[in-house]
Design goal:
single chain, 410 residues, alpha/beta, TIM Barrel, 8 strands, 40% helix, globular, disordered N terminus
């Protein structure tokens, strides 16, 4: 029999090795595992009334040269200032997914082709860098506290697909060619584009935490559909990390998304029943993140997690009321153990929200009040509130914080 003391020492050594393999947290990042959600301007007070959320996020969109971008939503970009100040006043870190390439002019066509054409256009990118500089100026003037800029979700996946040998240096982009003095000498490639973002942040807003977006499908593979072996998952994640490293730009953290819509939405609206997560899918998802974190040396944020559940009667697979099971996995009965495993893999926050109109909202987007339609598959729990998910997400988030937020390893 091995003495208990030696067993404890061996376990401690394993934990120490796990911790040592994790990259450092970004400066000023919380040391406990935080939850956040999509949140429109004016919602911070209501969010904080629910529980001690750590993050809230708001898209910045509309294009850089359209006259309709975020900089026009309030005078001279003060939309960002107001959102930051509202968040900080309620002790939450604001997160801005910066989604500007696709909607810039000229518009239309395939998303990948449009993104790649825009990033290689001198005219578009001059306006883009000016827009980005305005964001940094506003973010720095608004607060000395951390603000997260989540740069161009999906774009990096398209760029990887267009690359040779998973190298961002093989994809053209307008950087030094724009003539901006700050970008002199940077390569006219997607790697140079990433480096330009870091250069502008360092010069204008050191309080901004820059978030890369890791899209696993950038490898031309999708583990949700393929359900590969662990060895293949690691191989795909290694490619994702290789592309990120090829940028030659030091982002502070990486984001990735579980899904942009509930599995019930895909099943009912699009006839696709293959996006449901089961235990093996969660295992592969976490293994992908763990491998990427170790190789790219960036902690991970799980973002845009669908709100749907299979518990509440409100979730009857109709518009704004679609089912999913990710909230249950992460915040339900066994959620704490699952969250702890993700944290050991390098995930440091979970941000919930929908990526389009129609999927479930943790709000009353449907405007139908408290709803309790007939159960459809054992979802017999009556609604806790008028939220379209029956109030399940807010109830479980509150329970998580009541028990105490988990400490992040390392």
């Amino acid at each position: 029999m091995i003495p208990l003391l030696l067993l404890a020492g061996a376990a401690g050594g394993a934990d120490a090795r796990t911790t040592a393999s994790l990259p450092p947290l970004p400066k000023a990042w919380p040391h406990t595992l935080q939850i956040g959600m999509a949140s429109e301007p004016g919602d911070a007070k209501a969010m904080r009334h629910t529980t001690r959320f750590g993050f809230r996020y708001q898209y910045l969109a509309g294009g850089v040269n359209t006259g309709k971008g975020w900089a026009t939503w309030n005078e001279n970009g003060s939309f960002v200032t107001r959102y930051i100040q509202e968040s900080v006043a309620r002790k939450m870190i604001p997160v801005f997914p910066y989604y500007m390439l696709l909607q810039s002019n000229p518009t239309g066509g395939d998303e990948a082709k449009t993104d790649l054409a825009h990033v290689n256009s001198v005219t578009v990118m001059r306006a883009y860098y000016a827009d980005l500089k305005l964001f940094f100026q506003r973010a720095h003037a608004a607060t000395g506290k951390p603000v997260v800029l989540h740069v161009e979700p999906d774009f990096w996946g398209y760029a990887e697909q267009a690359s040779k040998n998973d190298s961002a240096a093989t994809v053209p982009a307008a950087v030094a060619s724009t003539g901006l003095s700050e970008l002199t000498g940077l390569p006219n490639t997607v790697a140079g584009f990433a480096q330009a973002i870091v250069v502008l942040r360092d010069k204008l807003a050191p309080n901004v935490i820059l978030a890369y977006h890791m899209s696993g499908w950038g490898t031309m593979h999708d583990i949700v559909y393929e359900k590969p072996s662990d060895a293949v998952v690691r191989a795909y994640a290694t490619r994702s990390a290789k592309f990120e490293q090829s940028l030659g730009a030091r982002f502070d953290i990486s984001f990735e998304d579980f899904s942009d819509r509930d599995a019930g939405f895909y099943q009912v609206v699009q006839g696709n029943s293959k996006t449901w997560f089961r235990s093996g899918d969660f295992h592969r998802h976490m293994l992908y993140a763990k491998t990427f974190v170790r190789l790219a040396k960036l902690r991970m944020v799980a973002w845009q997690i669908p709100y749907g559940n299979t518990i509440m009667r409100a979730e009857n697979n109709t518009w704004n009321h679609y089912q999913d099971n990710r909230v249950q996995w992460l915040l339900g009965r066994s959620g704490r153990a699952h969250l702890r495993a993700y944290a050991k893999a390098g995930v440091v926050a979970f941000l919930f929200g929908r990526g389009a109109d129609g999927p479930t909202c943790a709000c009353d987007a449907a405007g139908d009040g408290v709803t309790n339609p007939a159960p459809i598959n054992g979802n017999t729990q009556r609604s806790y509130s008028a939220d379209d998910d029956g109030g399940y997400f807010r109830k479980q988030a509150k329970a998580y914080y009541k028990r105490g937020a988990l400490k992040i390893p390392g």
